[in-house]
Amino acid sequence: MKTPILEARGLTKSYGNRVVVDHLDLSCKPGTVLGLLGPNGAGKTTTLRMLYGFVPPDDGSIYYAGERFSDNRARAKRSIGVCTQEDSLDYDFTVAQNLLIYASYFRPRVENLEGRVAELLDRFELAQYADASPHVLSGGFVRRLLIARSIVHRPTVLFLDEPTTGLDPSARLDVWELIDRMRADGLAIVLTTHYMDEAERLSDELLVIHEGRRVAHGEPHHVIDTVLGDHVIIVPRGEPAREEIAAWLQARGAEQVATVLGELRVPVSKEDLAELTARFTKATWQVRPPNLDDLFIALARRNGRFE
Amino acid sequence: MSGLGSLTAVADWRSWAVLRRNALVFLRNWRTAIIPPAMEPVIFFVAFSIGVGRYVEDLSYRGVDINYATYVAAGLIAYTGFGTPYYEALYSAYVRMFYQKTWDGILATQVELPNVVWGEILWGAVRGMVNISLVSCVVALFDLLGVVDVKVQFLVIMPFLGFIAGCAFASFALIFTALVPAIDHMNYPVFLIGWPLSLVSNTFFPIEPESTAMWALMQINPVYQLAECARGLLVLGNPGPHLLGLLASTALFLIPCTLLSVRLTRRRVLGD
């Protein structure tokens, strides 16, 4: 069993009186992707910023390869790669120079840098743009360059903050492939995303945060089961018994009754589904397995965004 | 990083890596980066020395009579030594910080925030050296033409004096860079601080302080010390007390301004 290369224990951060991250634990092993999920304002960004050293935690510890981050920041930062959501490419340089100049911010120096740059240009299909300004790149290729840049120094842990936001479906799939290959190369990857299909497909483990606290953690299907249960029923907009069904489910303790475009979406257990079927014999609804979209909506609703 | 750590970061390779990055960009664009900004002090020099100078009598400088053009030559070096790093750290650093997100990219590496701040301070000072070198060449040319009468060999020292003071000016400017909400607000530090400071520092005309407080203020003003140090060297070959004054006033500016810049920039860029 692999040992985590990144571990955080009891991470806590407050801004003023507001606790943004509250005693959060997480870990990531080499060759795995940890998906960090949660609605807006859940504390994902602050967690990431603490992990890569932008802001210090008020409490808790971060370890890279067993060494406390605060004990030797330079060594820890040498081992991590950061690909932020915002485009922070250096537009004063060409595509290849972006990789070269970025590598100059690390010591010990990158071994065989020229070779490493050529390898990345080739692997990320950027070779044809090597001497061009990043201005000529499409959104998908900008993202490729950002990711390539973040691993030019051969880190062991990579942070990807919403790496496919704003990309078209084809470019998204390309980035998925790149992430998958980096995982296969042994990188420990911490991924945040708003795309639930992306999180579900790419993550080996999910960590769901809500109001700065851990809500669920584990393999994707385990997380969904933990938070949502066995099934989701979808009661269509025109169903006459819709309100009655919602009231009945709420009376039985269902907290996550969401309305999406007039449809009622409610996670239910096997037992509740059986009783519902027996009670509302003339009503129609669909039943499907829960997915991360349901989880996300449920969390967002708890957060007040749907109210 | 502690306050002391923020100050000693100047010796860290990471600060010089940021300086190197800015220097590489400058070298890529050297024509547009050198010629227009360098023309400004040249135009000033021609206007003040040949234009205004014809209507101004000789001045007495530490017991030596000099013409107005000679007086202005040192002032222009000080003006360039102040203006170049000051505006570089205001506008160019703001563009790198806010629009280009260059700092965000750099901070995602081993480079820490004090290194970025020092990189910008050092780069501002280096830009000052470059422009002072150009102005010094112009002064040397005018000396050859007999318009000014300076000890030309001391022109070689001017860029280095400018570098020292330039660190103070750049660190001072970075405070505003971290504070202004939008680039339009740079007008405040430019017109309310930069311009007045460059005029009341014995650059283009001498000021006789009428009170002790005014005299004391002048002593802690690095622009004044730079102008007087340059003038002392160019006219007499002796900076007098102003070399020490330049070092002291630079330290007096640089240390608190750097600490404050790091603090304010941390809040602005890292949100902490």
Summarize this, please?
The complex is a heterodimer of chains A (307) and B (272). Chain A is an alpha/beta fold and 307 residues long.
Describe the structure.
The complex is a heterodimer of chains A (307) and B (272). Chain A is of the alpha/beta class. Chain A has a domain at 230-289: YebC, transcriptional regulation domain (Alpha-Beta Plaits), CATH 3.30.70. Chain A is built from eleven helices and 14 strands. In chain A, the strands form three sheets. Chain A has a six-stranded mixed β-sheet, sandwiched between helices. Chain A has a four-stranded antiparallel β-sheet with strand order 2-1-4-5, covered by helices on one side. In chain A, a hairpin with a 2-residue loop joins strand 4 (59-64) and strand 5. Chain A is elongated, with a radius of gyration of 22 Å. Chain A starts with 5 loop residues before the first strand and ends in a 5-residue tail after the last helix. A two-stranded antiparallel ribbon of chain B has the order 1-2. The longest helix of chain B is centred in the first third of the chain and has 32 residues, at 68-99. Chain B is mainly α. Chain B has one domain (3-270). Chain B starts with a helix and ends with a helix. Helix content of chain B is 74%, strand content 2%. Chain B has eleven helices and two strands; from the N terminus they run H-H-H-E-E-H-H-H-H-H-H-H-H. The model of chain B has no long low-confidence stretch (mean pLDDT 94). The interface between A and B is medium-sized, with 29 and 24 residues.
Strand segment tally of chain B: 2
Find the CATH superfamily of the domain at 230-289 in chain A. YebC, transcriptional regulation domain
How many angstroms separate the termini of chain B? 13 Å
Unreliable runs of chain B = none
Order of helices and strands of chain A: EEEHEEHEHHHEHEHEEHEHEEHEH
Molecular shape of chain A: elongated
